[in-house]
Design a protein that fits this description.
globular; Hydrophobic Seed Protein; signal; lipid-binding; Bifun_inhib/LTP/seed_sf; transport; mainly alpha; about 0% strand
């Protein structure tokens, strides 16, 4: 899988962040999603531990997703990005919330129903660094 494909798969890690954000006003663009998760690219491609910048980017995205439209927009960006992801890349993206100490009740999946992200759910923890 090329860097573009890996970047898109990495973006799937943000799917789970959508469900836990509070409420505000504009839909978030895919550019915003990808730029926040760009520091996660090496983790998604190669595994190991996500760098602190990756976890902070995920938290920034979570904080920005204030409305149902925001959460659904992010979900759609990530769902499109994750199509065709398999194996270790999918697994790494799916474990990103856990590795960043984020308590998110959903597993990342290309089959996620983005319409379910209309209500806010429990927030994540505030630990800024990844776990070992």
């Amino acid at each position: 899988m090329g860097v573009r494909g890996a970047m898109l798969v990495m973006a799937a890690a943000a799917l789970v962040f959508l469900a836990v954000a509070p409420v505000a006003e504009s839909a978030i663009s895919c550019d915003v999603v990808y730029s926040n998760l760009n520091p996660c690219l090496n983790y998604v491609l190669f595994g190991g531990m996500p760098p602190p910048q990756c976890c902070q980017g995920a938290r920034n995205l979570l904080a920005a997703a204030r409305t149902p439209a925001d959460r659904q927009s992010i979900c759609r960006c990530l769902k499109n990005a994750s199509q065709g992801a398999t194996g270790p890349i999918s697994d790494n993206a799916a474990t990103l919330p856990m590795k960043c100490n984020m308590n998110i009740p959903y597993r990342i999946s290309p089959s996620t129903d983005c319409n379910r992200f209309s209500l806010s759910l429990p927030a994540s923890t505030d630990q800024p660094t990844p776990t070992s």
